[in-house]
Amino acid sequence: MPDLAMLASAIEFLDTAFDMAAALAAADEPLARQDQVRGLQFMMLQAHSRVLLAQYEQRDLVKAIDRLEADAVRAAGWRQDASRYVLRDFGGGTYAYALRPGEERDEPPHLLCARCFQAGGKSILQFVLPGRDGRRIFECHACGKQSCLGRAVPERFAATDPPEPVVRRFAAE
Ligand SMILES: [Zn+2]
């Protein structure tokens, strides 16, 4: 919508120009006619500039509306995609978003970065390596954050094959 105040101002200048044109038609003396012509030109230029400004503002408003509509479409798509995921607790106070059961479609199982997800973005965590404390380390290529997922197990308890005697002793207690 064009700036109504700008258009009202342009109409005022055109009204004045109309009155000046009438005075110009009635003027007999050349000096008076020249003054009327200059005044008329000034009023026409003012009206023209007001209409141009209103057009620029209208163009900016149309662009802003286009941006808002594109944002709304993107946000609706994100909400729909985000509803396929749920925050999953991997233990030890570590979290990542994972697909809800039944939402796999044609995608392989994957995890999303919690930081990016909560900022409205979808970034698949990439496995880096198993941590020395029994957790798995992932990296988000979008924000660069590394996530250690899982409950940390002290190294002396992390040994697996065969179970360490100390583990059996703790299990028996
Ligand atoms: Zn991230």
Can you tell me about this structure?
With 173 residues, the protein is an alpha+beta fold. The strands form two sheets. It has a three-stranded antiparallel beta sheet. It contains five helices and six strands, in the order ααβββαβββαα. Helix 1 (4-26) runs antiparallel to helix 2. It has two domains: 4-80; 85-172, no CATH class. The chain binds zinc ion. The site of zinc ion has 8 residues, from helix 3.
Total strands: the figure is 6
Spatial strand sequence of the major β-sheet:
1-2-3
User: Which kinds of small molecule does this entry bind, naming each only once?
Assistant: zinc ion
Characterize the biggest β-sheet: 3 strands, antiparallel
Give the end-to-end Cα distance, rounded to a whole number of Å.
Answer: 77 Å
Radius of gyration: 36 Å
On the 0 to 100 scale, the average pLDDT is: 85
Poorly predicted runs are 159-173
Fraction of residues in helices? 40-55%
- By DSSP (H or I, 4+ residues per run), the number of helices equals 5
Percent of residues in β-strands: 15-25%
Cα shape = rod-shaped
Our count of domains comes out at 2
Question: Would you spell out the secondary-structure blueprint of this structure?
Answer:
Layout lengths: L3 H23 L3 H53 L2 E7 L2 E6 L11 E2 L1 H5 L6 E6 L5 E5 L5 E4 L5 H4 L6 H8 L1
Antiparallel strand pairs: 1-2, 2-3, 4-5, 5-6
Helix pairs in contact: 1-2
The structure holds zinc ion.
Zinc ion binds next to helix 3.
